[in-house]
Amino acid sequence: MKRHMRENYYVVGEGILTTGEDGGRTERPTTLAELRKFRFSRLGPKGKPLDELLLAKVAKAMTVAPTEADPVQPVSADPPVPAGFTYLGQFVDHDLTLDNTAAALGEQVTVAELLQGRSPALDLDSVYGRGPADADDDRFYAADKTHLKVGLTAALDGAGTNVNLNGYDLPRATQGSTKAERQRALIPDARNDENLVVAQTHLAFQRFHNRVVDHLADHGVPGAMLFSRTRDLVVKHYQWMLRTDFLPRIVDASIVDDVFTNGRRFVEPAAGQDGPYPSLRFGDTPTMPIEFSVAAYRLGHSMVRAAYDWNRIFNQRRGTLRLLFIFSGTSGNFDPFNPNVNDQESGLFERLPTNWTVDWRRMYDFAGEAGRADLAGPDGFNLAQKIDTLLVDPLAQLPFGAFGGSGIDPASPRLNLAFRNLVRANMVGLASGQQMARFLGIGELKPDEILNGSGGANLGSLTDTEKEQFTKRTPLWFYILREAELNGGRLTGVGGRIVAEVFHRAMEGSRVSIVRDPSWRPNLGPDPDTFRMVDLLLFAFEGRKDLLAPLGDEEPPAPPA
Question: What is the C-alpha separation between 423 and 475, in angstroms, rounded?
Answer without folding.
Answer: 9
